[in-house]
Specification:
5 helices, five-stranded mixed beta sheet, alpha/beta, 5 strands, Nucleotidyltransferase, domain 5, single chain, globular
Length: 167
């Protein structure tokens, strides 16, 4: 299954396009460029994802600022572009789902999520999962927001597998 996972931000967002669990394209780009990338997927059927997952903002009772609200606006714009252009209704994945699915701990931080991904997918570089240019590992080229976008994609795929097993 080809999926696109997005970790939205208020001005830039991380994204990963995955074939199953394997990342095939990723980056951190401006939100406007990401909207454009999604809108162009419809014309390239080889690159068009079958599913999309977007991390959703959740309220935990703490005060938030303008950046969080701006991020919420972009989540809606990404969701709409996915649905209108690609014809795929994106699934919203909450950070708590990521923490519980990947780390089994609601107090997990980004570093814990990253380490859980390294433990699960890295082949030889179990410290940072990237390897070297001469000997790249699973996460070669990843940066902070790409890690979190990949976590969104992994949680989405894990949920899909769980649904299949429940049938």
């Amino acid at each position: 299954m080809r999926i696109m996972a997005i970790d939205p931000g208020n001005t830039e967002s991380g994204y990963v396009i995955m074939e199953g669990y394997k990342p095939v394209e990723f980056g951190k780009i401006s939100n406007g460029n990401l909207i454009q990338k999604i809108s162009m997927m419809d014309t390239d059927q080889k690159r068009c994802p079958e599913a999309m997952a977007i991390e959703m903002v959740a309220s935990y009772g703490l005060p938030v600022g303008k950046d969080v609200f701006d991020t919420c606006v972009w989540v809606g714009r990404f969701w709409q572009e996915c649905w209108n252009t690609v014809g795929v209704m994106p699934e919203l994945i909450y950070r708590m789902e990521e923490k519980m699915t990947l780390c089994h701990d609601s107090r997990a931080k980004d570093t814990n999520i990253r380490q859980a991904l390294i433990n699960r997918f890295a082949h030889h570089d179990f410290k940072n999962g990237k390897g070297t240019k001469q000997d790249p590992d699973w996460f070669y080229g990843f940066s902070k927001d790409v890690w979190m976008a990949y976590a969104v994609g992994v949680v989405f795929l894990d949920k899909q597998q769980e649904k299949i097993l429940q049938r």
